[in-house]
Amino acid sequence: MSIPNTTSDLLAALRPSSAALPESRIVTVFNHGRNKPGLIPLWAGEGDLPTPAFIAEAASRALLGGDTFYTYQRGIPELREAIAAYHTRHYGRPFSAENFFVTGGGMQAIQLAFQMTVGAGDEVLVPTPAWPNFRGAAEIQGARITSVPMQLEPTGWRLDLDQLFAAAGPRTRAIVINSPANPSGWTASQGDLAAILAFARQRGLWIIADEIYHRFHFAGGLAPSLQHLIEPEDRVLFAETFSKNWAMTGWRIGWLQAPVALGQVIENLTQYNTSGVAPFMQRGAIAALDEGDAFIDGQVARARQGLEIVTKALAPLNSVRYVAPAGAFYAFFGLDGVTDSLAAALRIVDEAGVGLAPGVAFGDGADPYFRVCFLRSPEQLSEAMQRLSRWISRRAS
Ligand SMILES: Cc1ncc(COP(=O)(O)O)c(C=O)c1O
């Protein structure tokens, strides 16, 4: 007798934690609006500039030059050195190449971090609203997320540290700290980070630190960082990426920063996950780190301009709850009366010609909210915000 194979049989035969993963609600809106003529897409977490030529040319030269063979699992030594030099330059303390591991984007760094630290039945604390991929990556491992809701106050989003610490239970293994945060722009103070690190040390917890938006800090300079606080043996894993600073989202390249003692484990995990990142892309990444600071300054200036445009448009609207973010490049605003942000985002696509990410994608309590990515040309962004303001005003009248 053969085993039946209908669609539901096939799905039922999968590992439950993979089969149960939800579709990203951002993708639901994207799929709905993808081919709509004239739509201005502000739903994705990326700017509108292509990768600068000096980076693309370095990768192209390596590709044409035959840099096409299997390579180091940890990343080519020159790139690991360049990452360490970048950190030393920006954080003003010495970093060693031995702490850095090249990955397939920040996303794979997060995956590796969870693969190393959590398994079935373990819990991970995540302040919400949060980028949904933390949940997805933890759940693939069979772990559970414990959400710690942040509050929107007149000064911005606030994480109550007592509430965070109280949420840690006997099965808690890790805390995700994404600062500056996607989607809220919440940015931890140096004091908050010190308290979180002290708590993690005391309880033997891992911190999965996602500071990928550290350059996008609107008070000026780099955002406060755990990089200033950690000791070599701290249980802190940083996910990092080339995607945002250097406009390289489509490349899928980033890095994981971890204690040196984990090097062989990370090498093994890389071997069995992806077997490493294309070496010619790594050559492009070296150019990004070594020559890209001026480009990043331009990106940050563009984000500042975008922030101003979005804030000017949202601030006068009575039905909107919004405080300008301290960092990252998203405006996360609530709309009074909305109970289903996915349905509303689909309507905004159809009726206003603007693509937003629905709040429901970002976890518990975020349903009346929408995320706007403002790392875009001022002209397009102004047009999008005019359309959106008109839609919101019409809805209220
Ligand atoms: C908070 C956060 N972390 C990590 C990433 C991962 O970026 P990538 O996988 O493109 O490197 C993103 C992308 O949107 C993000 O918003």
Write the layout of secondary structure elements.
Layout: H1 7-12, H2 16-19, H3 25-33, E1 40-41, H4 53-64, H5 77-91, E2 100-103, H6 105-117, E3 123-128, H7 132-140, E4 144-149, E5 151-153, E6 156-158, H8 161-166, E7 172-178, H9 190-203, E8 206-210, E9 236-241, E10 254-257, H10 263-273, H11 279-291, H12 293-314, E11 320-321, E12 330-335, H13 341-352, E13 354-355, E14 357-358, E15 369-373, H14 378-396
Parallel strand pairs: 1-13, 3-4, 3-7, 7-8, 8-9
Antiparallel strand pairs: 2-10, 5-6, 9-10, 11-12, 12-15, 14-15
Helix pairs in contact: 3-13, 4-11, 5-11, 6-7, 12-14
Bound molecules: pyridoxal-5'-phosphate (PLP).
Can you walk me through this structure?
With 397 residues, this protein is α/β, with parallel strands linked by helices. The protein has two domains: 147 residues, Aspartate Aminotransferase, domain 1, CATH 3.90.1150.10; 240 residues, Type I PLP-dependent aspartate aminotransferase-like (Major domain) (Aspartate Aminotransferase, domain 2, 3-Layer(aba) Sandwich). Strand 7, helix 9 and strand 8 form a beta-alpha-beta unit. The radius of gyration is 21 Å and the shape is globular. The site of pyridoxal-5'-phosphate has 14 residues, from helix 6 and strand 9.
